Task: structure prediction
Amino acid sequence: MLEDSEAASKFIDTIIDAKLNGVEMEPEVRTNLPRNLTERLEMQIITTLISQLNTQEQIEVEHLIDTNQETQIPEYLQKHDVDLNRILANVMANFQAAYLGA
Result:
C-alpha cells in the first residue's frame, strides 16, 4: 500500500532525518530503516481503518482485497463515512510523535 507512495517515503525520510539529527548510521541499517518504518506505519493505518468499520463492513473490505479490488477501498470507505484523510493525518502525527519521542 505505502511502498509505492512518494508522500509516505518523504514522510519516513523526514522523521528519520529528524531523529538522526546529523548522526551517522551504518549504511545497511539506514537502507532497511525506511522499509521497516513504512511497514509499521502501514500496519497502524490499517488497524485504525479497520477499527472504524463494523463486522459486515470489515468482511466487505476483505472481499475487495481478496478479489484484487484494493483500488476501490478509498471509495468504499468514503461511502461508509470513514474520513480517510483525517485517519491518515492522525496516524501519521501519532507515529511521528512516537518515533521522535522514543
